[in-house]
Amino acid sequence: MKGSSENSEICSENVLRIKVETCSSLYEKWKDEKSWFHNVPRKGITTEVEYIDTRPDAGNTLPVVLCLHGAPGSHQDFTLLRSRLVSYPIRIICPNFPTYSLTKAKKFGHYAEEKAEYILDFLKALQLTRVDMLISHSSSIYPSVIILESEYGSTLKSLVFLNPCGHRRIQAMKYPLLDKTSAYFYQ
């Protein structure tokens, strides 16, 4: 690796934090449309997001790689990937979702729409105008697809799905009715 002392500074595991207000418009919509969402806070949630940013002072000057972990998971899931990519002139950002690992929130259901809104509000809090590459692991592919429809979707040059969830029920599952019921409530 080039310039190992510089790389060790950049790749250090300093966890950064930023306060994000999120999901207010989504929760407002859900309260009006879905009667079973009566417990969601109408004003959204405020949470402190813990994340890794390899070059936090770069702003929008470098290409941005956003890494989203699966469920359960944390920014630490991308430690090896970050260590391999840190020598390149890119900014790698790995946030935690609420209630996973170190980031806490009181009410967060981990629906795909919630996660997408959370990530979009997180990116706005960082004042990022683009995401060049989106890397999604496991269940984070669902909010990633929603993010494709956002203002950041038009800036994406690359989309990576690592170990994505399947789209069909596994035939070997013994209780298809239970599986269909679970999928219904997940949606």
Q: What's the CATH topology name?
A: Rossmann fold
Low-pLDDT ranges: 1-11, 101-105
Number of strands: 6
CATH class: Alpha Beta
- Residue share in β-strands: 15-25%
Order of helices and strands: HEHEEHEHEHEH
Q: How far apart, in Å, are the first and last alpha carbons?
A: 45 Å
So, the CATH homologous superfamily? Alpha/Beta hydrolase fold, catalytic domain
For the CA atoms, what is the radius of gyration?
Answer: 18 Å
CATH architecture: 3-Layer(aba) Sandwich
> Domains counted in the coordinates: how many?
1
Helix share, percent: 25-40%
Topology (elements, then pairings):
Layout: H1 4-10, E1 16-22, H2 24-33, E2 45-53, E3 64-68, H3 79-85, E4 91-95, H4 112-125, E5 133-137, H5 141-147, E6 158-162, H6 176-186
Parallel strand pairs: 3-4, 3-5, 5-6
Antiparallel strand pairs: 1-2, 2-4
Task: State the main characteristics.
187 residues, alpha/beta, Rossmann fold, 6-stranded mixed β-sheet, 6 helices, disordered N terminus
Overview of this protein structure:
Pfam families: DUF1057 (PF06342). InterPro entries: AB_hydrolase_fold, DUF1057. This is AB hydrolase-1 domain-containing protein. The structure is a single chain. This protein has 187 residues and is an alpha/beta fold. It has a single domain (4-186), classed as Alpha/Beta hydrolase fold, catalytic domain (Rossmann fold, 3-Layer(aba) Sandwich). It is 30% helix and 19% strand. It has helices at 4-10, 24-33, 79-85, 112-125, 141-147, 176-186, and strands spanning 16-22, 45-53, 64-68, 91-95, 133-137, 158-162. It has a six-stranded mixed β-sheet. It is globular. The model is unreliable at 1-11 and 101-105 (pLDDT under 50).
